[in-house]
Amino acid sequence: METSRPAPPGYGHGSRHLVHRPQCFGPQTPDSPDDRSQEFVLTGELPTSHPLFNDGHDRFHDLQAAMAMVRQVSGGIGQAHFGVAADRVPIFYRFGLEMDEVSAWRRHAGPGTLTTTMRVRPDKVISGVPRALEFDARLEIDGVAAGTGSANLLFLAPMAHRSHREHSRHTVLATAGQQHPGHDDTTDTTSRSPGPAPADVGRASAANVLLRPPVTVNGQRLSAAVLAPDTWRAGAVRPDRVTSSALLLEVLRQTALLTAHRLHGLDPRHCAPVAMHTHFRGHAEPDLPLRCVAVAQSVRQDALGRPLVAMTLALTQAGRAVTEAAVSVVEDL
């Protein structure tokens, strides 16, 4: 029997609904696979007044809005349906999303309804309780197939999470302290260019531009300095002093659009990331600057003849990787 409950709303979202479709399992035999996956359907309106996701040319729904919806229900799924303790700290360490067709993400009248069908599989099971969950998802917008997604979620004990955060911060601050006062590891002098305008990164408000000078280009490589998260608009840094993963994804998105624009001349007003696969490797300390580096491939055409640029990106802080990603950007005129 299906069970359903309202899902927590997000900024600028209407109501959401999460439906659980229980899976029935027969007796287990020594040769049968231990598949305890469950299926959920999350339905909700895409945002219309979000200060970040709706800041721009308003041509496409923001890919990150779909990611945010999954993030907001994931911890509750673990607690309610897989027996994860309420004090466990949920941490996404991988996230991937691919558009089936860009046209499904074009904005039309009304907010657009996103339906995400998720198959959730327990992983790292100890005494019947998973320490991690794997998500595979199918997305539809207003009934039209819009893409597929995947995610890996880890649940850490509070003490383990606190210890990891303290060790990470100590290491980063020690490394940053070894640098010369005023040293900035983003000062590559090759093809120096000014910091991006909002339109160059697909936004309208200068307050939402997270990249700053220097921006440097060397062949197929673009490097941009990133403002310290403490200086970003409210919501970037959580009360526990952890930088929001949503804002780290925004840095990757802005760098990808800027790279496609400056290296290959694509128009950010008509561009969208059609694939984004991220690996969160560490914490971004809120009071230190970051750097994002993109290495792009040559521009090619997708199946419909549209310009497409694939690239790899690395977001670093004090010389260590915080997030790595593979992103593809398409220009949809």
Architecture overview:
By secondary structure, the protein is α+β, with helices and mostly antiparallel strands. The protein has 2 domains: 3-24 and 34-156, Roll (Thiol Ester Dehydrase, Chain A), CATH 3.10.129; 179-331, Roll (Thiol Ester Dehydrase, Chain A). 18% of the residues lie in helices and 38% in strands. The chain has 3 helices and 15 strands. Strand 13 (300-301) and strand 14 (307-317) form a beta hairpin. The relative contact order is 0.13.
Write the layout of secondary structure elements.
Elements lengths: L2 E4 L9 E6 L16 E8 L17 H20 L6 E11 L13 E14 L2 E13 L2 E13 L1 H20 L14 E2 L17 E8 L2 E6 L18 H20 L6 E10 L9 E7 L3 E2 L5 E11 L2 E12 L2
Antiparallel strand pairs: 1-2, 2-3, 3-5, 4-7, 4-11, 5-6, 6-7, 8-9, 9-10, 10-12, 11-15, 12-14, 13-14, 14-15
